[in-house]
Each structure stands twice: as structure tokens, then as C-alpha cells.
Amino acid sequence: MRILAAMSGGVDSAVAAARAADAGHDVVGVHLALSRAGGTLRTGSRGCCTIEDAMDARRAADRLGIPFYVWDFSERFRDDVIDDFIAEYRAGRTPNPCMRCNEKIKFAALLERALELGFDAVCTGHYAILVDGPEGRELHRASDEAKDQSYVLGVLTAPQLAHTYFPLGSTPSKALVRAEAAERGLTVAQKPDSHDICFIPDGDTRGWLAEKVGTAHGDIIDRDGAVVGSHGGAHGYTVGQRRGLQLGVPASDGKPRFVLEVRPVSNTVVVGPKEALATAEISGSRHSWAGRAPADAEFFCHVQIRAHAEPAPASAVVREGTVTVRPETPFDGVAPGQTAVLYDGTRVIGQFTVDRTVSAVPIAG
């Protein structure tokens, strides 16, 4: 096969490209330039789209003896990921930019161009397993549970899975990948993993949003509607947040309070006790299926609401274009904008963006 290997500049994508070449595929490496500031420098292990990353990817491709290119996807990344991120926070939602990047950039824009150029598949260093089942290709969890990335790949559809290649999915541990990179003479063998949001390299999401959205002082209220503090912009808060609230009125029981709801229209943040974060139901209309759609409108599954959350047993209902999930035990705080990924054992069924949550402890107002 002709394989286009997406090379981020990290060890995983470099070893994935190497394995694709070892398997006898015709491999071409490509690094995606996603930043509008071409000279952006890396800060520690934050980010994955800096000038150093592009140089690391080129060196890895040279070592592997494969052609290498840098493609400028910065405009598409700005429109589909960064602008979406800002708009979601403005609307009082908590988005996952990695999900949007996979959905809109790596497995949409990149894959579309790859197919146009005659490639058969896009190869990445994600930890997930593809299985060719009787009803088409399936997406499964990786062998290494600690590195499993099937959650952030839950946005992939059947046509995208048909042209995707994940060489690392069955590798038992990341340590083995690093050891292999060292044996191959790849300089990225011990490079730290990237983390946090790549376009906010200093990790200060609230400060970054304040620059983009501006500040607008508003009230922090409790579940009864009493004002207990103030804030500089509701967009800087998310459901489940405890730190940085700066409440002027302590809780009567002396216990910490958490963000329960963000109301962008009134620029109000609602806080309350931890037990009030319990969520009995979530639903959303923006959904997709990773392969075949569920055979029944109602089915049992396991649901994961964050990249590193434990999957929870739940019942799901698909009705009039909306997916509704009710966990057997309430979720511990879910914010609109989060992504819920549905599993059948290790297989990813699909995903939806949470539009509505129902608290197990009703909130006044």
C-alpha cells in the first residue's frame, strides 16, 4: 500500500512510520504545520506543532530513508479547531480540541488530501487497534491500557477507518516503543510526550481565553441563587472546577464548593457541593458511529466521558437523531461540550458531543 505517515515529531509517529516501511509499504512522511507563527518554539513537553517538532520529524524521516514534506494546515486548524474552541467556551461549553483535531484535521483534511494524491491510508502513532470484522472495520482499545487512545479516535467514521493504519496498537507498552526507537537510531527515542493543548503552550487556558474573548465581570451564585463571589468571565470556568473560584462567602458546612453550571447568557457561574456534580443523564445530537451503527435503538454499553476516565456501564437510546445515555451509577460531573464515547467491550461503537445534562441533584434557578 501507499502510506502517508503523519509525523508529529514525537517518538510514536516515528516508530509507526518505521513499522509501516518495514511491512513493505511505500511510505511518505508528512508533518502538519498547524501554527500561524512559523517560528513557534517548544516549551518543555507542551505542544506538538512547533518548529523543533518539524525538525525532529524531518530527522526521523531521513533516518528511515523515506520522503518527507511539511504541509501547511494552519488555516484549516484555526477555523476548525481554535475558533471552535473559542466559540464553545463562549457558549459555556467545555470542548476537547484533540477530538476536533482528529475529526477535522488528521482524519478529514489530511486523509482527503492523501486519497486525492493516490495514497491508500494515513498512518499515525495513535495507540488503538483496527479489526476487520464481518461487518466492516472496527476500532478497538489498544493493548496497553495506560496508553490507549481509542477515546480521542472515537470520532472516526467507517469510511475513515477503512483508510487508517495504526501500527502501535498491539504494542504492550510505551517503553518498548522507546526502546525500538533507540535501536533504530531515532533521536526522538527519549523525547518527552506532548501534553495539554498544543495551541496554548504555556498551559494557561484561562489567560489565553481572556485574551481572545475578553473579560466580563459577573456573579458566582449558589444553588439557591445567593451571590457568593464574582468572576472576570464565565468562559474561564468549567463544570467540576474547584480551584480559582475566590469565593467571598464560605459554605455553611465549611466544605469546598465546585462549579455546577456555567450560564453564558447571564454571565453567571453556579457553585455547590461535590455531591451535586452527580449526573444522571447526558444526551447530544452531534454523533457518529465508528463503523456499523447500533442494530437497536436501545442498547447496553460502557461510556467514557474523558480521555482518562473509567468507562461506566450505561443504557443508551438513539431517538430522533439524539443519543441519550443513563449510567448505572451517576457520572461525577459532566459539562456540555464534552465528548462521550460508547464502547461494546473493547470496540468503539461511536461518540456524541454532550448538549444536555440532567443532574441527580436538581439545581435551583
TrEMBL record:
A Gene Ontology biological process term: tRNA wobble position uridine thiolation
Keywords: ATP-binding, Cytoplasm, Disulfide bond, Nucleotide-binding, RNA-binding, Transferase, tRNA processing, tRNA-binding
Catalytic activity: S-sulfanyl-L-cysteinyl-[protein] + uridine(34) in tRNA + AH2 + ATP = 2-thiouridine(34) in tRNA + L-cysteinyl-[protein] + A + AMP + diphosphate + H(+)
Paired cysteines (S-S): 101-198
Species whose genome carries this gene: Microbacterium laevaniformans
Gene field: mnmA
Record domain tRNA-specific 2-thiouridylase MnmA-like C-terminal: where: 282-350
Region Interaction with tRNA, annotated ranges: 147-149
SUPFAM superfamilies: Adenine nucleotide alpha hydrolases-like
Name this protein carries in UniProt: tRNA-specific 2-thiouridylase MnmA
Swiss-Prot/TrEMBL site (Interaction with tRNA) positions: 126, 338
Protein purpose: Catalyzes the 2-thiolation of uridine at the wobble position (U34) of tRNA, leading to the formation of s(2)U34.
Family: Belongs to the MnmA/TRMU family.
Main location: cytoplasm
Protein localization: Cytoplasm
